Predict the structure.
Amino acid sequence: MTENKSSARRTVTKAAQALASTTGAASEQRLPIRKTYKLYIGGAFPRSESGRSYVVHDAKGGFLANAALASRKDARDAVVAARKAFGGWSGRTAYNRGQVLYRVAEVMEGRRGQFAEEVQASEGVSRRGAYAAVDASVDRLVWYAGWADKIAQVVGGANAVAGPYFNFSSPEPTGVVAVVAPQESSLLGLVSVLAPVIVAGNTAVLVTSHQRPLPAIAFSEVLATSDVPGGVVNVLTGSAAEIGPWLASHMDVNAIDLSGVDDAGLATSLEEAAAGNLKRVVRPSADGAADWTADPTIDRITAFLETKTVWHPVGI
Amino acid sequence: MSKAKQPPVAHAGSDAPATSATPVMFDYAPALESRSVVEIASSYGLYIDGRFVDPVDGGSFKTINPATEEVLAEVSEASAADVDLAVSAARRAFRQSWGVMPGRERAKYLFRIARILQERSRELAVLESLDNGKPIRESRDVDVPLVAAWFFYYAGWADKLEYAGLGDHPRPLGVAAQVIPWNFPLLMLAWKVAPALAAGNTVVLKPAETTPLTALWFAEICQQAELPAGVVNIITGAGETGRALVAHPDVDKVAFTGSTDVGRQIARTVAGSSKRVTLELGGKAANIVFDDAPIDEAVEGIVNGIFFNQGHVCCAGSRLLVQESVAEEVLARLKRRMSTLRVGDPLDKNTDVGAINSAEQLARIRELSDVGEAEGAGRWAPPCELPSVGFWFPPTLFTGVSQAHRIAREEIFGPVLSVLTFRTPAEAVEKANNTPYGLSAGVWTDKGSRILWMANQLRAGVVWANTFNKFDPASPFGGYKESGYGREGGRHGLEAYIR
């Protein structure tokens, strides 16, 4: 910026030119402000209560940041926050939830550059590839946002029972959903598993990619500034192998999405633990590699919906 | 068969409100349904690949009439080897006949089965009452008509699956392993088998060990309908047989109705596999009565909610939540109504409450009722003389029940009602949802907006408003939370059997 400006001003004094070149040199050498990557729980950004962190590398093995290493206590705090937020979020009108999700897309669109840098650093993809992932993530949010006030008509309806009864079925959110986000696709994968959970009124406790957690924290900052109530999404950076079992066995978690669990043995043990309170379980894709760029279906929304059927007699 | 004794002329006594007269009681003459329409053989094999065969290991067990303790028949106990044969037969049928048959042809077989079920309804109703202990009035008017309706409903889906909103190219899963309970033996079979077959799956079904007979009759109905061999396989046995079936590696789908504990075991067993699962488990439904409810209708709903099928109903309204301002009146009228319930011979058309299904279940009901008393709740049952043989438990209610009492938390699965009170709608919701279960709930009020608000707030899969215990093949049924997952009935019920 400074150089462009100074070259455009051909009549400035030598002194001014000297000043301009001095500030230009200074900005080239300016020490950037690094971000402290923390957890996102109940709408706030705390460090791990355990005080632990772990080194996050870029794709070439260089140092990127020290991320918070979430603990069992952090996971439990996140579940408490998600449960507390459930009544309010599920009680919003579908129209409102759709607008809030659309707002997340809007805010993210405005920060495409930042997200592209985060994705590029984390995944080692080209600049173009990183932008493609960011754009797909924004578009996916918009796609899911539109489902908020339509899913009930698609999966619910009137039931023609053999008697004088008004009988209808409608979908309701399952409750608190634990989500293990995909390990490779740090942003598009994350948005693809999170948006369908919250669009229908569930609240989420999300464990990020272990090696590539940073875009998820940047995404949390978008959530925090997009009218998503605190606690609706809680983000834990760290290891699914460490936190997963606590979430899978937590009695106040209603469902668990294991899409990001690459280790088949761990996925099985988490599914076994989830049986304790009969959590709804989404298993990792059978062939191991889900294609997050593919067009989604409503399956990820309906996986976390309950069908409620109401009967009432008809008569005078 | 010993004739159950008539309940003595019952008086509401001091519990009756002063304004209402003591009900006039008539001495009913027994009106027995004839059991001559059913011929039960002394022993039965397993139904595998279209034929009744002896079990590989030759194991067997007896099924009895719970109202008389008389042995009805000896039934084969399927071992792991039999399970293997049944699954192989189902797999073959899936590959060679049923899985490749056009939907319109599958539909015709299912319609045929529905018609045979209607034709043989009287026989099936009597058999169900004999083996299960439920009143003939219920097996005749509820169970068997619904069984036929279930097949009729799903028959129509078989050639319309692409309209079910479950993807553009709906395909069956393959072989379904189905394990069903003893409370609605034939009806639960229908809930499992009809949607599975409509979607193009083949099935191996295990009925409960205390109620295997109607499933074996259904096997014969499949023969009458000339259903291709191996499409339906019925293997009898107890828990071990069920475990072998659920764990069989060539099963694509597991469907279970029963206790939450067994549901948990099944969920653990299938972990890490690609098997799809649906579970219909326990419940502890709140039946909520507001002060503006039509009291007499509500009392009928309460009675139907907990004493229908001896309370052996996963969605039974076992917790009565009554608004404090009308609690006294509701209780008085409820006790009066309970005094007129006729407990006894299931084949007597006047019987309201039949036999408890097994000695084991009776012991559990007694144990939990004793716990209720020991924990300080007030126990009440109308004077009611019970037959001296068979398994019986009088319609019972507990007052002064707190949310911490075991009888307010655990599923009793018997004719035992826990009564709690509330003051505000918010308190009613809080108490109703204060359970790990979430299968059903009832709401009684005259106010429309309150019904819809309550229906929104209740975390349960079925909400009956100003009615209770209604079922229909077009109506999805299934629970939230630890009441299981998946829905049975309606378009939603197909989802469990389609990929």
